[in-house]
Design a protein that fits this description.
Two copies of one chain form a homodimer.
Chain A (H helix, E strand, L loop, with lengths): L1 E5 L4 H12 L3 E6 L18 E5 L5 H10 L4 E4 L14 H21 L3 E7 L22 H20 L2 E7 L1 E3 L7 H11 L3 E4 L6 E2 L1 E3 H14 L4 E5 L6 E2 H11 L6 E4 L18 H6 L7 H19 L1
Parallel strand pairs in A: 1-2, 1-4, 2-3, 4-5, 5-6, 6-11, 7-10, 8-13
Antiparallel strand pairs in A: 9-12
Helix pairs in contact in A: 1-6, 2-3, 3-4, 5-7, 7-9
């Protein structure tokens, strides 16, 4: 199958490209390399079923040219601003990169008859929901610009399915960690402990607690749901039933960095930053009933991610 | 209080301006007169607490100039594409006029320190929901571009409340009818019966059934909730507990036009057009508990609307 992956040089998008190629598909990866890295797909450059095009997905003219040159059976739309904390500082960031990229993809799909879309959505659409986040729960009041832009994307995808005859899979990711990640708490802790191996400042009270999904499990789940769910509009939480506190992450990082006697200090409050959802619990029965479960626990995912980042940095020096 | 009403020459916006002036506020009405009509506010032109500025709310530079000249305590953001059926034909229409107007308003509010926003949302955010539409129900999968753009607006308003310290009232309107309306089933039927008083084509099977709220009841409800609800983010369905079938609307129009022996024919199917939600039931206990109920039933609202439109057309000829 001929597949377009937007954000294909990104953290998750590049793993997706690997997996799609491994199962025999042709993959065109688009990326403007603002969040993504050329190194994430360097190993694919010579692959006979892979091509990379450097393009800002907001550039609708350029995007339509890509659609015109190839006939794509499916688009995996992964391109987005991945730096959630930057949203409040640059109000147009998530509007342009997280929402308007989706709109541009939808327009090009209609213009060129591409019939199916897999969309990387997020737990952030639920905002600070009381009780477990079921796929059919409401109300949906995101507290981050990133979550708002993803919910806005979902809304237009839904209208596109109803009016333009496409099929869509909306997959709501939790925190995802692993090789090629560029942001997040694991990075922050490694950065701080590299600068000062004796003390670590932890945002919030350290009791923020979330499920962390290992990136390769996420990819496995994405492809499973894409193959297995047959509605016109499919929507699933993808996640893991265990979770990890921020304090536990700090402990794992300290251990993996072989440090000792590190003094933890906490900035206090229940969350790391405005727009952060300090704890959440996914309801995962829908995807479990379809037949998929994550292989690694949240703690295992963090261990793998810390090890991967330390190995990456070791290779960089 | 100094209040900005976007879409202030529109069907609902102009009634809102009337009501806000009647309770002593200063009102600046913005409208590009694409959906709104100068005649809707002609009676206000000489009012000492009213000013009208012709402006496309998407013109963020122009909008910020308006914010810079006056200090607004509250914005009522009513500007939107009101022709829902036009959405699928012009894919950017609801993006630009229904969603990006909201984004422009939010940006200007932040830039100029305006602290509160009342937003005209819609039942269309719920899509084709099974069971009654409660404010906290999900999932939210709109089937119209209009509904998608309103949900996208809600999402960013929610993020703005969480990150930028504003207070907001999201009010989800049902079908609203009455004086100064320019679209909808009442207009369509009057148009068709004026062209041919012997037969009336009715889209769908005529059993589409919705609550119709009289515009003056809506305005009353809006102001009641704005005054009475005190959360940072307030969200309410506004509606009426009765409803009216499309066939019943046809009968009321025929009766008010003093026609007889009109032959009804139905195009068939369960809905008027793709993107139409053929029947819905609002759950209204939240607004009832706050202390507000609509005065007129849905049938009474339709009767008032038909009479108003016939009177308007009589005055035009």
């Amino acid at each position: 199958m001929n597949i377009l992956v937007t954000g294909g040089a990104g953290f998750i998008g590049s793993h997706l490209a690997d997996a799609l190629l491994a199962t025999g598909h042709h993959v065109t990866a688009l990326d403007d390399l603002s969040c993504g890295r050329a190194s994430n797909i360097a190993h694919l450059r010579a692959h006979p079923r892979f091509q990379f095009i450097r393009l800002d997905v907001c550039d609708e003219k350029g995007l339509c040219d890509v659609f015109a040159r190839d006939s794509f059976a499916t688009v995996f739309h992964m391109a987005a601003n991945s730096d959630i904390q930057a949203g409040p500082r640059q109000l147009n960031l998530d509007l342009n990169r997280t929402f308007l990229t989706t709109f541009a993809v939808l327009r090009c799909m209609k213009q060129h008859g591409t019939a199916s879309l897999v969309f990387a959505s997020t737990s952030a659409v639920y905002g600070e929901m009381e009780g477990p986040m079921r796929e059919d729960a409401g109300p949906l009041f995101p507290i981050s610009f990133y979550g708002a832009a993803k919910l806005a994307s979902e809304a237009f995808i839904s209208a596109w399915v109803a009016n333009c005859g496409i099929q869509a899979w909306i997959l709501r990711f939790p925190n995802v960690v692993g090789e090629r990640s560029t942001h997040g708490v694991v990075h922050d802790f490694i950065n701080r402990l590299t600068a000062d191996p004796k003390r670590l400042t932890i945002l919030g009270d350290g009791r923020q607690c979330k499920p962390y999904l290992y990136v390769k499990d996420l990819i496995d789940g994405m492809l499973f749901v894409w193959q297995g769910a047959k509605d016109r509009l499919n929507y699933f939480n993808l996640g893991v039933n265990s979770d990890t506190t921020v304090r536990r992450i700090a402990e794992i990082v300290v251990e993996k960095m072989r440090l000792s006697n590190v003094e933890f200090s906490f900035t206090g409050g229940d969350r790391g930053w405005t727009g952060d959802v300090p704890r959440f619990k996914y309801e995962l029965s829908k995807v479990h009933q379809l037949g998929w479960q994550a292989r690694r626990t949240s703690d295992e995912a963090i261990r793998l991610a810390v090890q991967a980042e330390l190995t990456y940095r070791g290779g960089q020096t």
